[in-house]
Amino acid sequence: MNTDETTPKLREFGENRMLSRFRRLAEAAFTPGVILGPGDDTAILRVPPDRVALLTCDMLAEGVHFRNDWATPWQIGWKAMAVNLSDIAAMGGEPGFAVASVSMPGGAAKEMAEGIAEGLIAAAAQYGAALVGGDLVGSTGPIVVDVSLLGWVEEELVLRRSGARPGDSIVVTGALGASAAGLQALRHGLQGGSSPAVQQALAAHLTPQPRVKEGRAVAQTRLATAMLDLSDGLAIDLPRLCAESGVGARLWAERIPIAPACAELATRVGAEAFSLATAGGEDYELLFTCPPEAVSRIADAVSGVGGAAAAVVGEILAERAIMLTDHEGRELPLGTGFDHFAGETSR
Amino acid sequence: MNTDETTPKLREFGENRMLSRFRRLAEAAFTPGVILGPGDDTAILRVPPDRVALLTCDMLAEGVHFRNDWATPWQIGWKAMAVNLSDIAAMGGEPGFAVASVSMPGGAAKEMAEGIAEGLIAAAAQYGAALVGGDLVGSTGPIVVDVSLLGWVEEELVLRRSGARPGDSIVVTGALGASAAGLQALRHGLQGGSSPAVQQALAAHLTPQPRVKEGRAVAQTRLATAMLDLSDGLAIDLPRLCAESGVGARLWAERIPIAPACAELATRVGAEAFSLATAGGEDYELLFTCPPEAVSRIADAVSGVGGAAAAVVGEILAERAIMLTDHEGRELPLGTGFDHFAGETSR
């Protein structure tokens, strides 16, 4: 981040003034269920009485999940909220209320904290949620942003990872690989250009759009058997769904929808589009399973709410293995996923 | 922390194995409201339908809120959960479900992550809550632990900071300064000794006991007008309550209950017990206000549930100033509190 020498730093601006500013920002975007927002020991909230609650958290760390020279503070905040919204979407739920904790050095610019807060609030508001509390702490290390999100869903509609059955179709929303292509664009210094593919890929990587209305539409059909969001990529998330369901899966390589921006950028940077789409991660599309005869009705329901296209990419197997098959029936290797402690950074 | 060279590191142990282990630890301490815990996109939870929800988060950062050579991983986890439980207590609520995010370097010992998880779960279980989800991320910096806690309370019982009225008595539970004395003991290297005062002070600092049953008892009397928890110390937290209530306060110096361990340690380390008790922070006692005639009934209710003693320490004024008066009526200076970005570390 380009920090003007005259920009006030957090330690000069002061914690109390910063918290007052956050409070005003958050209050401007309250939803009707907020009885009391930031400023007390806890927020006070009205949760619909005839729902089960959904609770999730995701933490983003500077140097691991984002870089300040690649993402603006607003984008960091947006993404930190979006990845949590995506988790609520993956249960078929509605997002409600979020709290966010941020640690950063006292020498960071006040605009850094403010931009992150604005991004958090903008993403929440876009999907009907409100930021109702938070914590801001000084630290000696990189910036860390942690968001927890409370949502809800009718108990009879909730979609877990564990319901997939042999014979089910495997369906994904949207197209894959754009986020990984955006990361490649950043690594290759392409962000300055005006190429539409680069801009689409950067947007997918920096400001992902969680599939909240799509997840809700899938759940409301009551026809899907399991769902999750593709945060780490098909190659790691599908095995997770299969493990929870006690099943295996076959993916058909040629059916996996590759984002056009991914295909175009892969060529430019010498990467393989298929790998970016299956193992790159961070697309935040939804993957769900359902009986084959239900696919078109669910896809219609999703497009009926203005949602992303849904594509069948494989089928659930009784045999507990994950297989990838090309159009001639040959087995292909499926790349393995991301381990947070395996040494890769700044993905 | 003393790390044996043969202890497996997180990056060797692997993220998935670590998360599986956390899941088993958490599952062993589930409460009846947990429909689904860690392992899916979100937890699925049953929240009492006739309550308002309370949501809070608090983040602890290594080098700022804790030091690995002063606190065990278990104590770090305990405290991270306890400070959130204290926030729910301060609203008069009941804690329900927590999620926790932890970032730490891949080179950290697996036992570090495990100990933090065990401490988190132990503190939650002690106060009727369950850890239902989390995130574990690699980072290049110090350890950061962020907990979000969902609780609830009858809407008509909730106690905000904003209800204090001129003439109200100001009451605190327990005694103050033990936590700050514990920090002094650590700074002076006294932790190895067997002095009961040192051990009590260390326990107060490293494994605080949130006043959950006390807060609940206060709320159930319906006689208190405002409440908060003393996380940053009387000198900073009372002005916060007063600001929210649009009032001022007079504290009577000789009425402020100083923990015996604080008094004893202050002498040993050459600190002023009164300063530790009023400006040291992290006691996690409750401060509430109520009409003077209600004090004894509330104190009885608190002791009726086996809670800490309650002591009147001052009165609410219409004039918006915070004053401290000694037993001869002289005005004394009230130390100012802690700013997270003002440069002090490892408090």
Describe this structure in words.
The structure is a homodimer of 347-residue chains. Chain A has 347 residues and is an alpha+beta fold. Chain A folds into two domains: 10-157, 2-Layer Sandwich (60s Ribosomal Protein L30, Chain: A), CATH 3.30.1330.10; 169-332, Phosphoribosyl-aminoimidazole Synthetase, Chain A, domain 2 (Alpha-Beta Complex). Helix content of chain A is 35%, strand content 23%. Chains A and B meet through α1, α2, β2, β3 and α3 of A and α1, α2, β2, β3 and α3 of B.
Short description:
Chain A is 35% helix and 23% strand. With 347 residues, the first copy, chain A, is α+β, with helices and mostly antiparallel strands.
Number of helices of chain A: 11
Task: Give the CATH topology of the largest domain in chain A.
Answer: Phosphoribosyl-aminoimidazole Synthetase, Chain A, domain 2
Report the top-level CATH class of the largest domain in chain A.
Alpha Beta
Radius of gyration of chain A: 21 Å
Weakly predicted, low-confidence segments of chain A: 336-340, 342-347
Count of individual beta strands of chain A: 13
Tell me which oligomeric state these chains represent: homodimer
